[in-house]
UniProtKB/TrEMBL annotation:
Signal peptide: none annotated. This is Molybdopterin molybdenumtransferase. It catalyses: adenylyl-molybdopterin + molybdate = Mo-molybdopterin + AMP + H(+). Belongs to the MoeA family. Keywords: Magnesium, Metal-binding, Molybdenum, Molybdenum cofactor biosynthesis, Transferase. Pfam families: MoCF_biosynth, MoeA_C, MoeA_N. Its cofactor is Mg(2+). InterPro entries: MoaB/Mog-like_dom_sf (IPR036425), MoaB/Mog_dom (IPR001453), MoCF_biosynth_CS (IPR008284), MoeA-like (IPR038987), MoeA_C_domain_IV (IPR005111), MoeA_C_domain_IV_sf (IPR036688), MoeA_linker/N (IPR005110), MoeA_linker/N_sf (IPR036135). Its EC number is 2.10.1.1. Pathway: Cofactor biosynthesis; molybdopterin biosynthesis. Residues 199-337 form the MoaB/Mog domain. Catalyzes the insertion of molybdate into adenylated molybdopterin with the concomitant release of AMP.
Length: 426
């Protein structure tokens, strides 16, 4: 069953009246993100040790073979097995001692064994290394009982990476695995895109920062710390995190200022249909253009995207779970495009529900869920809290991803196959 398609007739009571036919599918929204968001052009050169989490702007090419010389995979004895006559055992004199790092290595003296250590260069003329546990040692002599195979315990020059090989392509995000490969290629520095400048504007007169006073009917600000944490990844720089009033004029001034300092302005709240929802009007006043406004997704229906000149604007809903889900799904995708990542991280996979689900059809629904094991067929089972709503984040820490419930499904039995998207963690 596919459910990432246009929902022409939203079936949920809160979908239809204000947006008839205007909600687009998740896939269409992702497509529009791709069409709008292009990588920032500026790059910088960083040492590899400073580059964690950054996005490569130029490939990393291995200039010399890795490993750069044949070396031993074991502590043992380097021998030339071609010279072993008969079935053995063979007794050889130990003619040399080769620790790791020793240079200018002499060739193996014919008919002898060279004591060698893991990582040390294998002397010319040796065809194998016999690990020391398989050798009987008597002073300057060693006894080998089994014929070593050709190349045994030798890591060959270039067997990891060839000279001239592209180790990492442009657009790769540098995590520990990529940094390992770049380090093995001897890359001291890499060329990465500069950090994406992100500004956060959290609307809502009722929203208060924890630690300040709070009157009745006011609420703690969840979105600033939550999105601040999501943006605190090495490829991004949070240039501003400001509260905004529900006032169109002041909002316009604030947005103009943020657009002059950021590549991406993320707002929360004020994107729905109420008279207090001024964000879109303020952007229109600045000459902004909308790329999408409203997606058939629950929570997060009012999520919007647009641009003001070269600056991208992402409007997330105010409800914290809706903001979280739409950041995970759309915000991360916007960032991936703007930072020039070429391998988009779409880790959705199929899982099986541990409980039945009752719901209203109409929008594709994302629910916090957690993996709880496997069923008798070996399929991954997920559980979830049945009482989710778009303002509720208390159950987020227990979850480790989101399940996607089909737009057109009302009741799903226990054991239904659904998609699961693990959280992006930075
Ligand atoms: N008549 C309609 N009303 C609403 C509709 C609709 O279609 N018709 N859609 C609902 C849906 S769905 C959502 S989602 C919300 C989104 O509205 P906004 O994005 O404009 O957000 P606000 O109205 O500003 O706030 C919604 C909600 O979230 C609370 N909030 C806001 N900011 C924060 C924050 N930083 N930390 C914690 N909580 C926050 C705010 O107090 C509201 O309760 O609109 C529905 N309404
Ligand atoms: O779509 Mo709204 O996101 O239910 O909360």
């Amino acid at each position: 069953m596919t459910f990432l398609h246009d929902v022409l007739k939203p079936g949920c009571s809160c979908d239809a009246p204000e947006h008839p036919g205007k909600l687009i599918s998740i896939d269409e929204a992702l497509h529009r993100i791709g069409a709008l968001c292009h990588p920032i052009a500026e790059v910088e050169r960083l040492s590899l040790s400073q580059a964690h989490g950054r996005v490569l702007a130029l490939p990393v090419v291995n200039d010399t073979p890795a490993p750069a010389f044949d070396n031993s995979a074991m502590d043992g004895y380097a021998v030339d097995a071609r010279a072993f006559v008969g079935d053995g055992p063979w007794i050889l004199q130990v003619s040399d001692r080769i620790p790791a790092g020793s240079g200018g290595q002499a060739a193996l003296q014919p008919g002898t064994a060279a004591r060698i250590f893991t990582g040390a260069p294998v002397p010319a003329g040796a065809t194998a290394v016999v690990m020391q546990e398989q050798v009987r040692n008597a002073g300057a002599l060693v006894r080998i009982d089994r014929r070593p195979s050709d190349g045994q315990n030798i890591r060959r020059i270039g067997s990891d990476m060839q000279a001239g090989e592209v180790v990492l392509t442009a657009g790769t995000i540098l995590g520990p695995r990529e940094i390992a490969a770049a380090a093995a290629a001897g890359a001291a520095e890499v060329t990465v895109r500069r950090r994406l400048r992100v500004a956060l504007l959290v609307t809502g007169d009722e929203v208060r920062q924890a630690g300040t006073g709070r009157a009745t009917a006011q609420i703690w600000d969840v979105n600033t710390p939550m999105l601040g944490a999501a943006i605190a990844s090495p490829a991004m720089e949070l240039v501003a995190a400001e509260p905004a009033a529900d006032d169109r004029l002041r909002l316009r001034r604030q947005l103009a200022d943020l657009c002059s300092r950021a590549d991406l302005v993320v707002t929360t709240g004020g994107v729905s249909v109420g008279e207090e929802d001024h964000v879109k009007q303020a952007l229109a006043d600045l000459g902004g253009e909308l790329a999408l406004s409203g997606v058939a997704i629950k929570p997060g229906k009012p999520v919007s995207l647009g641009s003001v000149g070269s600056v991208t604007w992402l409007g997330l809903p105010g409800n914290p779970l809706a903001a979280f889900v739409t950041w995970q799904l759309f915000g991360e995708t916007v960032v991936q495009h703007l930072t020039g990542q070429t391998r988009l991280r779409n880790q959705r996979r199929h899982v099986v529900t541990a409980f039945p689900i009752k719901r209203k059809p109409g929008r594709c629904e994302f629910r916090p869920a957690n993996r709880i094991g496997f069923d008798a067929l070996g399929r991954e089972l997920v559980g979830f809290d049945g009482t989710t709503n778009s303002a509720r984040v208390g159950n987020l820490p227990a979850a480790d991803g989101l399940i996607l419930l089909p737009a057109d499904a009302d009741d799903l039995p226990e054991g239904a196959l659904v998609e699961f998207m693990p959280f992006f963690e930075t």
